[in-house]
Batch of 4 targets.
Target 1
Amino acid sequence: MGFLNNTSVVVDAILTRKGRELLARNDGSFRITQFSLADDEIDYTLYNPNHPSGSAFYGEAIEKMPVLEAFPDDTQIMKYKLITLPRGTAKIPVLNVGYTNISLKQGASLAITPQTLNYLGSNSTFEQSGYIATIGDVRTMSSFTGVGVNTAAAAALNTTTTTGTVVSQTVIGTTINLTATTVNTLFGSNTTLQTLLTIVGRDSGARISVPVTITKTNL
Amino acid sequence: MSFINLAATDFVVSNDGVTAPAWTDGNPSLGGLRMYTTPGYSVAPTFYTDVYVANADGSVTSSIPNFSVAYGHISGSGATLYNTLVPSASATRTVYNQFRNLVYADENTSFNFGTGNTSAEDIYVINVNRACYKESLFPGTFNLRLSNGTATEDLYLTNDSNDSTSITYLDCGRVYNLVSGSNGYQSANDKSRTNANNVSGSYGLFLPDVGIIIVNPRRLSQTPGTAGGLGINPVNAGTASWTYDNTYNQQILVGAMQKANCYFNLNSYETVSSDYVFVRVPNNQFNYTTNPSVISGSGALIYSTMINNPQTYMTTVGLYNDNQELLAVAKLSKPLVKDFTKESLIQVKLNW
């Protein structure tokens, strides 16, 4: 007779850069209310459905993998979320924003309206709860807003002002509006600025990252 | 859906006391020969001397001082005047008044070391770096061996925290007496030295809540042996006529700490508040992933076996606010398999 292991897994959490920022803001925005799970680092090509020892060993190469420590950069972790879908789903939701990379001149604007493919039996749909868009370096934008979602949470997030050094900004909406910065000093001796735009479907969990390049025009 | 709301019952706050060695090298005992006081490292030698932790070869292991030693005098003796036109105004008087205000919160009260020295004119102060003692000094761990260079006359100081049946408070919080002994217990020899105590008062005061140890210079100036002193005296203090000089009397106590056999043992104490979040993963949720390595460009699963029997391998738990901003993140030590037949309970610990 053996003993069942009924203990839970205990893990230590660290604050993300965004978490520290909200904690410092002291306006009640640092309040944990939800969780999500992700499988960052997992390469499913290691999954072997032809393993000679049978189905119990399909994921052997993945299960033995040592996991890295958590990164405090909130844009570089929780990339690939685990999602809940009906059993028998053959296609996973993916996002389409119409761009594989975005190039903007100083002061130029762009509106992005993401669509979710393969979600809720539809080839292409707009998610009801909208999309979370995070710009990696808020300094590169003179304006970064989300529109189309009229909830208190979205309104609170979309009116938040973030200042300082390289910090991200997150907005919620069905359409994301970007206007590139007109400030020359950010460029230094360079002619372009780069950052990353990450968009996540609030309902589906699907995610896409699009590199953003700002080109200097005010010489 | 990729987010689950946490219930109020998923949160537990726990406060735990944690003790640890106070010194920056992680060693509970700081040997006298490893106390490093290069003047160049001292910010203000007129007021205090910083003591660093050094390796056995003399190289400094920490760029921050572990503790500082100061000397204070009620009349400003033992230091040069700020201005020769203003008598008694010197660094030692500033130090005395500063710590008097901190300990007693009364500008008219002198330090009281008990019978024989109820109105002390001078003090040594050992001020432990806040980063070292964290929240407070852990009383029973304090052991300080002082020497005048003759090992048989060494003095072993501790506090009487383990002998005390009740805790005494001053304006600065808990206060214990410094006694000769070890690990919070007064030695039998020290208990029998009532005559010496009556002449010069106790060895000093141990103030754990403000990270300060006050040492009575009059007690250390007693003759070694039966009187229980060290025979060391601050320069130009304790004599009939007070004079001013720049000898930095705190160096006398530092010198008594830096001998070969000496040591300074101390642990810190802090209350660590932990927020435990219980993440409950039901069997019918989180069984699919958006990981690009398991789907083709159009979103189709690349393994047909995963259509009806999906398996995911969770590595990361993210904690969010209502705006779905990622506040905290935890990683598992290894990937945890999840499918429609498995449920998981993950306890995430956030320390404050």
Target 2
Amino acid sequence: MGREFRVAWLGRASGHDPGAPEAALARRGPMGTLVNILVDGVAYGMILFMIAVGLSVTMGLMRVINLAHGGFALIGGALAHWLGARLGLGFVPAAGLAIAATVALAVPLERVLYRRLYGKGELEQVLATIGIAFLIIASVNLLFGSGLLAIPLPEAIRGPVDLGFRTLPAHRLVVIGAGLGVLALLHLLIARTRFGINLRAAVDNRDAAAALGIDTGRVQAAAFALGAGLAALGGILGAELLPIEAYYPLRYMVLFLIVVAVGGLGSVAGSFLAALTLGIIDTAARYVVPDFGTIFFFLAMMAVLAVRPHGLLGRAP
Amino acid sequence: MTALEVRGLEVRGLNRAFGGITVARDIDLDLPPGARTALIGPNGAGKSTFANLVTGALAPSSGEIRFDGRDIGRLSEAQRVKAGIARTFQITTLFRRLTLRENLRLAVLEREGRTGRWFGRAGGDERVEAEIEARLAAVGLAGRAEARVEELAYGQQRLVELALTLALRPRVLVLDEPAAGVPSGESHLIEEAIAGLPDDLAVLIIEHDMDLVFRLARVIVVLVGGAVLTRGTPAEIAADPEVRRLYLGAGHG
Amino acid sequence: MSAVAPGRVPLLLEALMLAAAVAAFFLFPYSLGFLTRILIMCVLVLSLDLVLGYGGIATLGQAALYGSGAYAAGLFAVHVWPAPLAGLAVGAVAGAAVAFVSGWFLLRVRGLTLLMLSIAVAQVLQEVANKARGLTGGADGLAGIAMDPVLGLFAFDFVGRTAYWYALAVLVAVFAFLRMLTASPFGLAVRGIHESPARMAAIGTPVHARLVTAYTIGGAVAGIAGALSAQVTELVSLEVFGFALSAEALIMLILGGTGRLTGAVVGTVVFMTVEHVAAAADPFNWLFAIGALVLAVVFFVPAGLIGLPAALGRLGRRR
């Protein structure tokens, strides 16, 4: 109903719950807690990075405000749920197919809908992408209902991993590893390939890039698809922290936008820095001063934007 | 005001650097009332930068700008307009979706300090509306008052910008490439408008169109690499060997 | 989407809307609560039209001002004096004050940064209200608001009749004020800043000061909407600062059409009615209806629903 819809928008900006932080504090003492905060915070940051980086690049490249970007994380997560929990596929094939399917959906979406938005005013883009988000939510709702869609993780990463000096949840380590992998992959892609060069040129100055003969349309489509795929990956891996359910795109929309704004439009490194910083600050605040909730998160954002209005690594357009 | 105070614009030792790049180097320039001075130079010489420095859109690294003896270096752009310095832009900057009438109305109302008023219709003052009609007629656009700026041809938009700027009753007018982008069939309108400017107005024209410059200017200042190369009357400049090399060598006409 | 001057027949649309509002009272006597909520929302969306439609200030934080007005009016009624009109004034002042202080800083930036900071202000206020349980009731909300009769004559009744006319009267007054303001020299200046801040500075306008003034007035109007809400529902919850409210107000405004004031009203009525009807009919699939509606408006009637008659007219002429 309308009620449910209302509650779904940004209940809590940062969305996730580390789970009984006070108990953890009592068990492990301050040093152990610090490690917990770091691990949880970094893992959370990696999830934010994977999902938001595509948004940052497409917003910097196409100058389109896309409030439906979280929808790709949702689609990926919902498909992984269906393939894994309902059809019984293993985690890796389920995740792989889900990501591929999300990319396959993103390509025509960009061609048919987003391409028509590039020239339009900001307000129209906001309205249209909110409409797209609504449609994605309604579709997932129709197919899977409005409850939580759990993605069954393989046995291997469900438990703790003994690293010798301490034990850490395997899932968090996998997420951190994946995040670093994505960063490395993107760095290689952008620094070493022709696509990367074209992308950087187009982000820097689209008209000049087009004048140089770069097919900016294809660059945009490819960047959009890549961003969608990464968002799906982040959604699947992050399902423990940001639960997959129909209202996901609206619930976490502001969160992703904050990462993009703080990191700077069009900057991969900026998204990484912003995601990690915000992830750690938010997790730390939840452990140490849980009463204050999201104030620190937003104050941190305001502080960064006050000093660097275009984000940590962004530039004035 | 005594004769001593009406000195117009005086620029002394104006400098501006961005990091390691100096875009304005030790520029001196005077614009007394009635001046018709042209600022010429190759692309990237710093002409628009100079316009920005004078009008307050850009702050200098060092140097002085005085208007009627008063140091205006600390004044904001809007404050300098109130003091009497106005400009047109290289790329026509108007209120595109508003009508010509509304564009000029804003200038007149702002000049009279009335744009802070919440009450009364914006277009309700007959005297103001009559002035708007007269100014539009002066640039030959009398019948188009209800058209939106974006509906006009580019040359006509340039004229509107000139009319709007004159509505501010400035004492110093900076015209940044007034003929730029105007189709050759319409450029005579611009020239006539500039030729018809009030005699006591100090005018600085930044231009590439040499015909326009030589016909309208009484003093020409040549800017290269941010610094003044030379200055003089049109005849002196035309005969100057360095200037000839600068322009004829590069293929400019 | 820029502001457009009033249409051919002056105030015809406004007269029709007023007539419709009066008729609604008699046609839907059991839905007065819902209809009153629409009226209150209209006031909020009108405040956003001033700020965003006319001023071009892209904000997703109007709820910060609405909520400030709601809590201020609610606390005023509980602790000082439960007179409705005085409460409206308090709400207006609270909204204006928060808008003035936050606007001074917010309006130094534009674009995505402004958007995010406006969201942050509302979120921080929500957290503060949450923590100040003693004063605001925290997550339980501020309750026990019992209002005196309006002007000492019209007591609030259970059915909501007084509330409806009260809210309608406030909406009409606010609308009239904004009509006058947007037609004034100040209104023209605000539209000028929206069109070209560079040109406004170049004609001598103190741009930042004008924008802050416009934002402050918008804050006052939003504060009035919040105060109305507190008085009519007799409860103030944390949701008055909620992002959902800011976002929905934005959707309603763009849907109806920015920069005309009438668009704000049309968008609010259409969105809330569709939400109400579709959600009641099928609570799970109504988002399809809204999503499709929104996309249709963007692609076919970009000026908003208020531009629909003109668009249909053009369609007719093409045949």
Target 3
Amino acid sequence: MTFLKSMLAAVLFLALSGCAALEKIEESPIASQLITNQITLRFIAGSDDPVERAAQVRDVVEKVRGQVSANKSFTLAELDDAVRAEIDWQSLSAADQELLNFGLNKASAAIAELIGDGVIDPAGMATVATLLTWIDQAARRVR
Amino acid sequence: MTVEIELDALPAFSVLSKEHVSGNRWRLTKPFFYFHNTGITIVIPKGFECDGDSVPRIPVIYAMYKGRAIQAAWVHDYLYQEQRGKEFADLMFLDAMEDQGIPEHIRYPIYWGPFLFGNSRYRGKA
């Protein structure tokens, strides 16, 4: 359960990290996809069992996708708080903790600049869904 | 505390976990990842087999170049097998050697081997 929580947090982090490249998505979607792809694969590669971690990432992506498609509205601050609360920091290596902190800070700043502090609108939700698809596609490559 | 991380500054390769099969052949016991600085990531699946860096068995040449480009050789062999284009495979091989820290005077001669003479091997993997 603890692991699942940290996985959920990690996937949300990855989605948010991808959001850090939102400014470039319209002008350069391929670059944004490559960044999301590489962050996802670096997270998977860091595991002792990359195949298992990839499968877990895909499972959690499915769960998050379900929540996004359910159209539950939330603000950026609520999303940020929820992600941080889900992180089981003790189970992560120092390097993973640094990576998560870095990603969350960057992502929050980037999204705030784009959409402000209000409720994430349908366009923002669609972008999150796209990023989840990219994460899933990256994880599928690990076998 | 804010920590800045540059993706390019992270290691270009994951840990290479392999087991000996026979002769020069080795098999991956975990997927192997190569993170190229363009954002492209090569993912080589667990179970893939490779015979390492192929260097002609000419004494001085063999001693100079054999065993230098281990990680890069896995990437190169995999891309040849996947038939993603010989030029692409050879260039990724060259970049992977650079990411391994192999100096120019070593990596270019190693690169020229498959670049000049790798056509039949590339076609043979199809």
Target 4
Amino acid sequence: MKKHIIKSAILVVLLAAGASCNKELLNIQPSSPTEAAYFTQESAFQQAVLGIYAKLTDLYSYNNVNWLQEVILLPSDELTTTQQNNFEDFVLSPDNGKLNGYYNACYQLIARANVVLEKIATVQDGVFSSDSLKNSNEGEALFLRAFAYYDLWNLFGTAPLDTVRVESQDQLYPPSSKGTELLDQAIRDLGKAATLLPTTWDANNRGRVTQNAAYGMLGKCFVFRATVSKSNADYQAAIAAFNRISGASLVPDFEDNFDYATENNGESLFEFQAGNPVQVDNVYLNNDADYAVGQASAYWGFYDNNYAQYGQPIFIATQKLEKSFEANDPRLPLTVNTSNHQIQKYVLHNQLTGFGVGSINNPRILRYADVLLLKAEAVLQSGGSTSDVIDLINQVRTRARKMVAGGTQPENLSTTETSKSTIMQWIMDERLRELAGEGQRWFDLRRWALGGTITLNNSYFSSATPALMKFDAEKHLNFPIPTSETDKNPNVEQNHGY
Amino acid sequence: MLRGRFLQSLLIMKLSLLLITAFCLNAYSASVYSQERINLELKDIRIKKALSVMEHLYNYRFIYSDNILPGDVRVNITAKNETISEVLEKAFANTNLIYRVLDNNLVTITAKGASLATIHIEGRVTDASSGKALAGVTVRVKGESTGTITDENGAYSLDVADNAVLVVSSLGYVDQEVPVNGRPQIDIPLQSSSETMSEVVVIGYGSRQKKDLTGAISTMDAKDIEKSTAMTPELAMKGQMAGVSITSAGGDPSARPTIRIRGVNTFNDANPLYVIDGIPIAEGGSGISNDIRVGDLRTPVNIFTLINPDDIESISVLKDASAAAVYGVRAANGVILITTKKGKKGRAVVDLDASMGFQNVPKTFKLLNTQQFAALYQEAYASNPTLDANTGQPLPIGQSTFGPTYDPGSSEYLGNSPTYDWQKALLNKNAPVNNYNIRVSGGSDNTSYYFSSGYTYMSGALKQNNQERYTIASNITSQVNKIVETGLNLRLVNENTLQNTQGDLGIFKAPPWQPIYDPNGPGGFAPVEEGTFIPNPDYDPTKISSGPKYIFGQGPTGLWGPQQVTNALGEQAFNSITYNSQTIIGSAYVQVEPVTGLKIKGTVSGDVYSIKTNNWADYRGWVFSQTPGNPYNNQDGTAAGSLSMRQTKTNNLLKAVNIDYSHLFGKHSIELMLDASDQHYTWDIMTSSSTQINYTDPDLRYFQAILPYATGTYLRMQNYALIGYLGRLSYKYNDKYYLDVTVRRDGSSRFAPGHQWGTFPSFSAAWRITQEDFMKNISWLNDLKLRGGYGSLGNEQTTEGFAYLSTASLTPHYALGSGEGDGQGTIQIASYLPTFPNTTLSWEKVYTTSVGFDALMFNNAFSLTADYYHKKTKGIIQSVSLPGNAGIETPTDQNVADVLNSGFELQAGYNQSFGKLGLSLSANLTTVHNEVLSLYKHIPDRPGGLEEGYPIGFIYGYKVGGIFQDQKQIDEWKTTYQDAIGSNDPQPGDMYFQDLYGNPSPGQTTKNMQKDSVINDNDQTYLGSTIPKFYYGFNIGLNYQGFDLSLFFQGVGDVKKYNVYRAEGEAMSSNGINQWASVLNHWTPDNHSTTMPRAVFGDPNQNARTSDRFVESAAYLRLQNVQLGYTFPSAVLQRTGFIRGIRVYVSGINLFTATKWTGLDPENDLIPSTRQFLAGVKASF
């Protein structure tokens, strides 16, 4: 008996000793797939592509109380707010959290696109079931990356250019871009994307970018570049790109552009696809909050005074915007409630998600009306027929008129007008009216100011708090590069004046 | 609930009575006889010769058999007027012989083990230093269940075998074994354990007498631990040990306190390692900092409530590298060793503890009443009204963001309403605290056992916050035979926590006119929002995107103005958040000792910690929410509420083998210990939830698989393993010179292959100077030991692991397919690669130097321990956000930062008796110098409190210059300065801030000392350290004839905190947050305050910017515990026949705090620490 006990005791001790020496124990794999294991199926590529789109959520959603829309909505003459606001008043410093958020979101989107482009370039044969899907995926990545470059150029001007995936420390410090380098890359990407993207997607995939979207953005980028560079060739290229858009048209009812039920319609070229996760759209988390259901919605609380504003005043129309509408323009009541100046777009036919903060109503990023007006501008600036130009503007005005039963106003503009500056003013005014509150105005003002078409100063903006207005055209056409970049990247130069 | 607890206590008492009757004592009779005195000196003499000399000189005769007296054994005998017993006691000390003095001076000598007769013995037990009688001391016979306790004169008597060994033990004294050897009279002096260096201290992988320690270790024993009423051992340690800083989490019984040992080593996980009975406890979620959901997943319940402080025998804190090196890669933040009570050989002892009490929050915020509130905001708005966008004229307050509730002209005006006290409504008045414990322990020569069972109920400072704990602990060890020993240790804990604190004292911000109760409101509480529902015209049950069945027709509309708050009491009535956890910790070992001194031990141990979160929300509760959603969302229109449950489970399995060899040769002593262990740890989470629960009854609230409203997920959040090899060599010469050398080699799965292994060496030495001959003449110094050590330790807890791999995250999602009436589309899974892999990532390393001394002085009455420590943490993992252009979304872990901690520790004690009055004093003090030495690219994170040359977590902000009293002063100021933060258009009553620095040149992150007259971001500066520069505790103990009184004070010094609640409560700029009463003294044209600026809506001048205006000293001195006890005299108890001791006490916790802090509690303002009063009894049978 005693011997047995001793023997078994020694055995236990030896067993424990043996187990303690098993170095294989350290061989533990993570619970999410490694990169190498992941990109071996077509479905993974679809997920990775959707991951690029998903980054758009940061720009249009509530985002952990750090919603970014004011970065492009408020520094303009169409919207204002009744309290001091750094974007409204151009009190911009490099440590501004929202600018930092916008900057980072754009580069994160670019990084996601760069990963997809790298993986597609090196994908093994047989992973994709068809070349067309592979091409579409490449086109989507290029389009979305170009969109980020476009935003970066319009906001920061000189942000650095990253066209390949950052994988080593020495890639972390690219220099500032110069001039229109960011737009140039966007134009290259969009040109290629247009050749790769499908003309349509099936109903289940509605919302993914198409050839029309690529040509639309391509033309827009050409117009933007041409506004600054005065290049006739760019205007011509813009017209050529716009002309390749096929099948798009203005929807009969202007309001259908802002109604949740009529998303991805015939006028729409590119939208952020706001949605609602099955259970909870947790607007206090990011879309890709770790292991959590984050948000997939858009945020419009700054137009309809959502409680998530926590008592902060909403964005309202400036007097300038209200006065820009001609008498009886049927778009006015759909754009502004003139009694309290609240913006109506997106909130007249809105649908909030379960959280009561987010909305499933898609922000329309590029629509055909915008394209028509840009085309008008390109034709005008490249010396084309002024009556053609006015026809293009009138298409937009006609739709506005026709959506009201028996409506005749606003009247069409006279096609006999030949003064280039008058017609340009018409285009600018029509853009203000048609696209009010859609986040286009500051980018337009900026490019026109850069190109000398207009002169921006404090009086240009009709702020509700003019005493606080600090606009300085020398400085504010480029927003400051965030501290988080300039602190860590010695090759980036801060924009002038910050 | 209360009734249930009362029944429980009755049950426990019944159980204890049963157990007590089972262990009653026997009585013994006595006899006496006389002896002759001996004077003799014999050197190096054979035993037989010595005996024959004594027979020759004295009147004794020795009887023995030759074969038990080996001829070659030699002895020394030196006797001066001693009894024959005393002489033989010394002579036979190192032999196998025992003797018995019989009548007629006949002495029999036999070998050990042979008993000849039962004799009657008696004697007195005294305190060795004072010579005073000790009452209530246990005197028992080794290996048997017989024994007695001493009376008030210290006297005892027993009938025992003549070769028996007595075991004498008493709390606070060193146990002593005394062989009877036939003596009828044995007086026994006991050494006080607090007055000797022979106290046994648990060290990592073993224990050691205090005099033999070389490392820095603080200890605490059961006596002091039991005084705390906390549910968790951490709070029992608060203020008790030098070098150990404990910050209470406030009045929530389940909240986690913060423990920092010798400063703060890292920006990451700075928590020490906990080892309970040799099992390193790991909690799910430790070390993950970049996952925002971890705090939620690990729940707010402190895992260390798993151990009932009443079960703890001792706590040792290993503070320096040489002490903690045995735990290698996990020990950088120090190690807390918790040793639980074990059975002792001898008859069964039953201990019973019971205490009951209640607690209250000592104070609440002083606030404005409704009239003062309305007047303040009308004034604030008038100072800065909103302008009409068209006319440029001021809008009336009723048309601004304040709304008509603030407009005296409006019918909706609330400024004449009563004032409601939200704070009082939330407080849990006279919250009960109950604790019952019963322990049974004992053992035979070969086996000892311990069982305990406990029940604790503690309610919190706020309503619907309480914790209830049942604990069972057991251990048993058995010496199977001469070679094999085995043991089993098992602990089970079941805890229920209700944490339905929908609000805390942050509710002070509620507009005072917002009512709490409403007899017509749901559940009797006042709604916050109103709204009506209409059928959703788009509703289509087949299409989720068509929205809920009902939508708001009107509303939701807030009822009490823009800053109304959630009605926390209403939400509590309808919602609940509960946690239920089970813990099993256990270990089993087998130890063989094939050769004397060589022990080989195999241990398998582990813990399973599982906690379930149950979160119920009743849809009717939406009216109480400040941010209401549509209750009909995500359900079919008939549901009663939503329920989400989460089960997280931590699984920790440890296998170890340990070899220990000790050997004595002459004055040299060596001990070699080798250990190999591996540990595998996982943390799993399962979640399920349903928004379609059809019943409110908790018994009927279960999930029905009503898709798509029910969902579930499973996650493996953490999975890692650790392998460790350890060697420790300890050498001691003549109790004078000591050397310990430890090497630990660890492998961790958290790092890349090739970077998984690290070696952590340390050494320490000690010199007991008082053992040297040249010190023998210094009579006031009883003991002095110098100690010193150096070593390195690792901290692997600071990274989640797999930072070396790029993994795909499937967390993003994106909707596709909306259009043609469907605005929502279908959510699709998306993915991205979040990380920038760092293949060379490794653990943080802490290099520690520690020197100190332990001294005992003045006849052992005064003890002093002093230490100096110097710790450098190198390669602190900073989660570095790479330059924005890289687009890397998860910060990359890099070993880049260094931090220094250094300071002094003092621990002193004094024990003395003055007649019948006993006095004991003890005090400890620790100083901390904390400094960040280097950061990633030297880039400071100033808002985050990180900058080279400053302590971790310092406060950063502006310095106030003063308050402008008139326009003239403003005009003068503006001739020099410009304020870029505010509107730069100050009005009288606004604050001005100091211009301290200029803008740094581009690319520079250092301060530009050249002032630039512009007040902007760069003028923010260091405003104070949030790490206390020193902390201390002191204890005063008095005892007099059975009464004992102790007062325990504890405090921290030289520490600053930003008073965030004062910053909100004195801002006077919002559209309706209630303010502290202190704002009544704000600046007005008639009241030129120099400290409190004017009330102005929107704060255009940014008076409330982060500045020293709100930085306060958070230093405090607290009377933490006062206890008055009475111990019944043993003479009285002896008459009962079975009670061995009873002590009753009353106790007050947190009675008094001296502090300059203007909030409620310098540790936690929103759930402050409570003041408790308790009465209790401790009895043993």
